[in-house]
Amino acid sequence: MPTITTKDGVEIFFKDWGSGQPIVFSHGWPLSADDWDAQMMFFVTRSYRVIAHDRRGHGRSSQVADGHDMDHYADDLAAVTAHLDLKNAIHVGHSTGGGEVVHYIARHGESRVAKAAILSAVPPLMVKTEANPGGLPKDVFDGFQTALAAGRSAFYRDIAAGPFYGYNRPGAKPSEAVIQNWWRQGMMGGAKAHYDGIVAFSQTDFTEDLKKINVPVLVMHGDDDQIVPYADSAPLSAKLLKNGTLKTYKGFPHGMPTTHAETINADLLAFFKA
């Protein structure tokens, strides 16, 4: 399996398919590069080079005890892009991966980056604070950690079968295959990485990162997102970006790259070509 080893000795697994302008995909919590199958298959057949890595502690990357924070996530992504010597790359991040992309560009600069897209993404800040009164209370995320520690197999099943894909909405038609694939990806990773990752995605403030970014960024979000609520995320991120464009999807759930892949892929393609 193709891997790189980071400065602190962590093996990061990655996929690298095709040739052409590179698109680098950063996945959400607690998943893996496999969550981008619908996008990677679409773009590799349209003359793009598609790359996706498993975040440290997730998927096929090392299940280390430490470094499960946005600085390490961004540095690991930078290590992959440097190893592959990517230039003029487009970065696409979903959920936690959207935070990873934003922090990577702000922390490591834009010399290798052409554009970015963040989908159902956690920036600017998920947790409720005095400065972010629309955020979710910290005890929501504390509850996630408690549920994970008590038995993540059942917890992951409940997330996938419920709010992640909007399968708990009236009239929804749950896909057992999609639910099982989410659960499979989650259970491949390390419980410690996922436990710490809840703090990383909920308590990292990306406000200053967003302000630093100059490249065009497409901010895509469903207004029925039950994981990262719309009002306190996408519109605020788009305003903070120098060159941000907001695209809102009526009724789309958090997992819209899977449930509405045809729409999302077409809109990404249009943005890449613009």
From TrEMBL:
Protein name per UniProt: Alpha/beta hydrolase
Pfam family, one: Abhydrolase_1
InterPro entries in the record: AB_hydrolase, AB_hydrolase_1, AB_hydrolase_fold
Keyword Ribosomal protein appears in the UniProt entry: no
Molecular function terms from GO: hydrolase activity
Domain AB hydrolase-1: 22-254
Keywords of this entry: Hydrolase
Family note: Belongs to the AB hydrolase superfamily. Bacterial non-heme haloperoxidase / perhydrolase family.
Keyword check for Lipoprotein: no
Species this protein is from: Bradyrhizobium rifense
SUPFAM superfamilies cross-referenced by the UniProt entry: alpha/beta-Hydrolases (SSF53474)
